[in-house]
Amino acid sequence: MQHWVWLGLLKGIGPVIQKRLLGYFGDAESVYRASKSELMEVSGVGNTLSETIKSTSLEEAKRILEKTNKLNIKILTYNDRLYNIKAKQCPYSPVILYYRGNLLPDSTGVGIVGARRCTDYGKEVVKEAAEHLANKKIPVISGMARGIDGYAHTACLKAGGYTLAFFGNGVDICYPKEHSELMENIIENGAVLSQFPPGTRPKPEYFPRRNSLMSAWCKKLLVVEAGKNSGSLITAQYMKELGREVLAVPNQIYNQTGKGTNFLILKGAGIYLYPEQLLPDNEEGLPVMNKNIDPNEGEISRINNDTKRYDRQLSKKEKKIIESISINPKTIEELSQLTEINQIELLERLSVLELEGIIETSAGGKFGVR
Amino acid sequence: MASVVKSFAIVGVDAHLVEVETKTIHGQPLISIVGLGDMAVKEARERLEAALNQKNFRFPKMKVVINLAPSDMKKSGSHLDLAMAIGLLAETNQLKSKKLQDYGFIGELSLNARLRPCVGVLPMIIAAKGAGIKNVIVPIENIKEASLVSGVNIFGFENLEDTVKFLEEKKRYQLPVDINTNSDRNKFDEIDFREVRGQDAVVEYVIVAASGGHNMLMIGTPGCGKSMIAKRIPTILPSMTEEESLEVTKIYSVAGLLRERGHLVTRRPFRAPHHNASTNSLIGGGINAMPGEISLAHNGVLFLDEIAEFNKKTLESLRQPMEDQKVTISRVKYTNTYPANFMVVAAMNPCPCGNYGNNKCRCSDYEVLKYRQKISGPILDRMDIQKYVQPVSFLDLSDYSVGRSSGELKERVEIARNIQKERYAHIEGVNCNAQMTPSLIKEYCYFEDDSKKLLRLAYDRFQYSARTFHKFLKIARTFADLEGSKKIRKKDIAAALMARDLDKEQIGMLVL
Prior knowledge:
The complex is a heterodimer. Chain A folds into three domains: 2-71, 5' to 3' exonuclease, C-terminal subdomain (DNA polymerase, domain 1, Orthogonal Bundle); 101-297, Rossmann fold (3-Layer(aba) Sandwich); 316-369, Arc Repressor Mutant, subunit A. Chain A is 42% helix and 13% strand. Chain A has helices at residues 2-9, 15-25, 28-33, 36-41, 47-55, 59-71, 85-88, 120-135, 148-158, 180-188, 206-217, 231-242, 259-266, 316-325, 332-339, 343-355, and strands at residues 74-77, 96-101, 109-114, 140-142, 163-166, 190-194, 218-224, 245-248, 270-271, 359-362, 366-369. In chain A, the strands form two sheets. In chain A, strands 1-2-6-5-4-3-7-8-9 form a nine-stranded mixed β-sheet, with helices on both faces. A two-stranded antiparallel sheet of chain A has the order 10-11. In chain A, a hairpin with a 3-residue loop joins strand 10 (359-362) and strand 11. Chain A is elongated. In chain A, 46% of the residues are buried. By secondary structure, chain B is of the alpha/beta class. Chain B folds into two domains: 3-167, Ribosomal Protein S5, domain 2 (2-Layer Sandwich), CATH 3.30.230; 187-425, P-loop containing nucleotide triphosphate hydrolases (Rossmann fold, 3-Layer(aba) Sandwich), CATH 3.40.50.300. Chain B has helices spanning 39-42, 44-51, 81-91, 121-130, 143-146, 160-167, 185-189, 200-212, 226-232, 242-254, 279-283, 293-296, 312-316, 319-324, 365-372, 377-381, 406-423, 438-444, 449-462, 466-482, 490-496, 501-507; strands at residues 3-11, 14-25, 30-34, 63-69, 103-105, 108-109, 115-116, 135-139, 153-157, 216-219, 270-271, 284-285, 290-291, 301-304, 326-330, 335-339, 343-348, 385-388. In chain B, the strands form six sheets. Chain B has a five-stranded parallel β-sheet with strand order 11-14-17-10-18. A four-stranded mixed β-sheet of chain B has the order 1-2-4-3. In chain B, a hairpin with a 5-residue loop joins strand 6 and strand 7 (115-116). The model of chain B has no long low-confidence stretch (mean pLDDT 89). The A-B interface holds A 116-120, 123, 127, 146-147, 150-151, 154-155, 157-158, 178-179, 181-182, 185, 257, 331-334, 336-337, 342-344, 346-352, 354-357, 360-366 and B 198-201, 204, 219, 350, 356-359, 361-362, 364-367, 370, 387-388, 390, 392, 396, 399, 454, 457-458, 461, 491, 494-495, 497-498, 501, 504-505, 508, 510-512.
């Protein structure tokens, strides 16, 4: 195993050359034992690189291995059967990964990425998407950053789903710190993975590499509220290179938070409207979903809820209230103006409607349709 | 024979009779004051010497011993000066009066033998009445405060000379005419709930809080009117009874906050300490164990603006007085118990940026929760009502009808309070719905059938704990009382279930 770790540590040698070396020599130990002239046979390996390979000792690798043992960190090598074929196909997927948690035989899934500072709209979209994926037993993949990433993992876990988080730092470090609870939960019901050895602190330059790794695991990618220079756009770019589908959540065109996603749509990304779009297209080993969903056929509840049925006959005033908040949530003051019902009477009616599950309180003491 | 003159000492909010004994002994000229006086008492000797060296008096060239009896009780303050001066004058035959025993003396001396006003006059006069002293002499500035107690003759003088002349019956007492009569009675009248417009729902909960003695937390974006509403709460609280008034005035008198006012505090206090307040300033403390903000808010409102910014420890220290309605302050020198029966009204922002729930906010759920967790569970638990205050659009303001006036609201509050007073008359320590224990809730909360159905529904939907349910029931009881209903109706339950916005919001948060 130490040779694998060693292979991952070689300076100036990325996943592409690593894989060539593996392809030539068969396994990591053989690479380590190979002579300089043998190494030079591999295309792309010249004098300098072979020099590096020969001069790098096993010391560092041994130290890291010891650390992984102590911290109960598992190692996923390129030859491991848990290393997904689909992920392997990706040229940037590294030959060695460190992880904590449990990897499924097929852990590829749907990626959800987006802004750290997101709006309620973004949160709502993510929640719906992640819950849907969890219910369909499809892994949710993200980067455990603040905002959209964190919500994706959380919503998935809350719905009892399986989720993977890819780090731009060692898997023994929790970044951002506020997600320590979330991280523990992910480890319990999924896994956190990283190509960086334990102890690596997060650095800005690591995140694009993390994004490329993440894209290797994603069959589809949903981008929510990415800004103009968001890292999510990098992930989307990698997905494009892999020829995999990118879906973007449309946003208002003047809205700063949605500039990146709207731009993705302009450049040909799919427009995300409902969670069924995230389900895999006809593919081996995964539940097959009917791609040809007709929005008019009621499969998509959200688009088709005009004729929602209630347990009882609603009064005229109640209908008016529901109508007023059907598009977006309103405060009691706004409702009072719209419906011309005084606030004290509204209080009582809203309370009953809420208890009956017809409306609900949303953030900031507003009322919205459930 | 030593001369004996009566004065008083303050302990906590109460005063006790002190006998000032003065004796001159042949020996080296020297004045010594014994009887556990503090520095202010000890320094009286310098003031005495200077004051008694005025034209009409002379300071004895003998050893003077002044004893403040009972000698084992600690005494503080400069109000004993006058009694000592009178005692000394009597002892040295410069003052000949047979009626000294009928008088109590309160007052600080200036070096020119003028009388300066003192703090704590009201409790001292109450103590005089209790001790059967019919007449009390006070500095002229304290006449009004002293006169609040009926049954004691108050004489106010400007200086020592007048006092002595009066006691020797060389001059008749004349009530000074120019006691300034300006009062703060009009201060409150300028603010009225009428100015709160378009926020009827929140105001309704404020009425409930005021009626049932419930503590209230208002959450809202900056500038939405939280403080505006809070400031108006005292205007709808029922008027204080005379007993309550006297309690409050006593505290203010001891704290030295009454000097400018000079009359009984009849308005319920409204205290709004800044969030930088120290624990001692809030609870009470200092070397003399003085009353803090919570005692100054006794029978009134303690408004904690930006409650999330308060020091956590300071907030926690409120827990016990909130339960006990009194606070005991222990210091090395003093242990005082002050009343502290107050209603807490608090205000805070919903999240670090303050805009939670509208488009400007980019706070993550974790940050929002973290921010709210600055207020501990036990404190939040004591806030029966937690309501959002929504900003009112400035442009729409003119469309609203004028809000309801404080007078109108106060009437409703008083009706509900009277019902409660009757209900809890025989139960000690319970005056309002907020103080109901679970067994009292069982006893006094009877429902209509519809209400029960609604409660069932609420349980199924939100899985509230029994504790939370009790809060709702207390609030529902107040809603029913406000309309004089014996049974708790469906609408009372419905309105009560809307009283806790924060609880519900937490359910929807995406945080593990």
